[in-house]
Task: structure prediction
Amino acid sequence: MRIIQTAAAVPPQRVTNSDLAALMPTTDAWITSRTGIRTRHVATTQTNYDLALAVATQLLATSDYTAADLDFILVATMSPDYQTPGVANRVQGALGAVNALACDLNAACAGFVYGLEVAAGQLARGAQAGLVIGSEVLSSLLDWTDRSTAVLFGDGAAGVLVTAAGPAPLSRLRSFGQDAMQLTAGGRTNHSPFAQTPALAPAFAMNGRAVYHFATTTVADEVLALLATAGLAPTAVDGYYVHQANVRIIQSLAKRLGVAPERLPHNLAEYGNTSAASVPLLLHDARMSGRLTDGQQIILCGFGGGLNVAAMLLTT
Amino acid sequence: MTNTEIFGKVQAIIADQLDKAPELVTLTTNFKDDLEADSLDVFEIINEIEDQFDISIDTDEQINTVQDLVAFIAKA
Result:
């Protein structure tokens, strides 16, 4: 599997920390020092589908592939517009990608790398090319009066065009369902006249310590386990493109992996935590800035709700 | 390891993590009230303690003061 193109689309509306301070009791200094986030992009008129379609259109427009060449369109998201149809199906329809399979995939913040894993499976069994996109409108899942969560997230989409060229990636995907309820969002209410179940909390909520512990220890252990399987020293990897949850988590991961912090690029100052969109958004920024070039060995790592973690080693 | 030895090591870790003078960290020190530490600071301190003492502190454990930490490490 080879990533031959990247693209991103974020809503134009930028919301600064100071803008949030006008909505809830918080300050720019607090948010910046605790999270590393300075701004986030928030959807106004855009739906998840609009963002994902913009990414898909760019991916095709900047490559030699046409919609009919696509064998799959996978959209990783925890904030789809509808339960059905999937965001991916509407993108397929809009593109006219008549030969593609299309579906959404929800593994929360690990979703994009889970999507790449599905893509790698398709490519290993005869598919030639496809799109993997992370797309989120997390602003619709937030309690905008809760300063402990509302400041963390942003909206956006990004994705990659992958082809069957090159070796299969090496990956390690793990899930920890015993801790599933440590991080919840989008709980639904059953409006059936027969339902006797309680309403489930719609807004994002998490047990900070449990999630932080998972993100800094389990995630680092899984990446190290993948590197051990590959027979690679952590310092042999050109770049670690990890989920953008909090700059302090990223710094802690660098320390635990035993690599310089510069090996783990970050862009959450601009976008906040965009869940499934964060890893491809980071890849796209790195490619645009010239940091990510052909022939590099990189690790992609998503982690979060589930609790899920996915790490993938591939050559660009 | 005696409680005094544990405290000495814990004091150094906390002072280093929070960038505070070690003498500001006593057994009765409350992380949030006395050291202006937020929850993320406490998570980082606990991670460092787990690494340096090679122990595991349950995520449900209530850690508010330095004494809470030392007591936990002593019985771990």
Q: What stands out?
A: The domain at 3-75 of chain B is CATH 1.10.1200.10 (Non-ribosomal Peptide Synthetase Peptidyl Carrier Protein; Chain A). The first helix of chain B runs from residue 3 to 18. The two ends of chain B are 11 Å apart (CA to CA).
